[in-house]
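Bug report (template v2)

What were you trying to do?
Predict the complex of my protein with uracil.

What happened?
Run completed; filing so the output is reviewed.

Input:
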Amino acid sequence: MSADEKINQLAKEVSTCAKCVLNESRKKSVPGDGPADAEIMFIGEGPGFHENEQGHPFVGASGKFLDQLLAQAGVTREDVFIANVVKCRPPGNRDPLPDELAACDTYLEAQIEAINPSIIVTLGRFSMNKFFPGAKISTVHGQMQKVGERFVIPMFHPAAALHQAALKPSILGDFSKLPEQLQQARAALGKPVVVGKAKNKEEAIPDDTPKQLNLF
Ligand code: URA
Ligand code: SF4
């Protein structure tokens, strides 16, 4: 099965999943969006009101802010894969519970395996805790660390920065470092490093190399 087929298959499974109690109150499951060959994968917390209505991640207020942050990093939604630690909305936007996180993690793991991103950016503490249990986000945010075959960068959740103005410069600063960190990750993983600013993807990517983001 290709990565694309695997991602579609997982989305199908998620749409009928009843492995945790969140299935009872969901309207639409939100498996995640983006290309199956994305170099950068973002992992948020879980669907909110609008995501539950539409079936897509980050389509509400924090999604608007995420779009600005992506622009800060020189990327668009079409370049990246965006998922969550739980695929169904916790009622009233409560925190996901440990058994819900555990039940849904098999889907997230399968997505990571299929996409095989160079960089995972965790948004907020639940996805950070998956990779760095017990870490303090105020200390480690923006710092890229190798985890197995890839790199993980913990960042604040966009919603947290929307509600606490003091976090906004931090999250903007962290996103602006992403292009440079991607180059570092590519070099460390033995993937082609794109040099020079290209106007479009075709210019940056010779036909016979894997897809690269248009960051420089
Ligand atoms: N917040 C999240 O963590 N994920 C979404 O998809 C939307 C808001
Ligand atoms: Fe299944 Fe995840 Fe939805 Fe729970 S949150 S029902 S594990 S898809």
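What did the reviewer find?
The domain at 3-191 is CATH 3.40.470.10 (Uracil-DNA Glycosylase, subunit E). The pocket of iron/sulfur cluster (ligand 2) is lined by residues 14, 17-20, 22-23, 29, 86-88, 100, 103-104 (CB under 6 Å).
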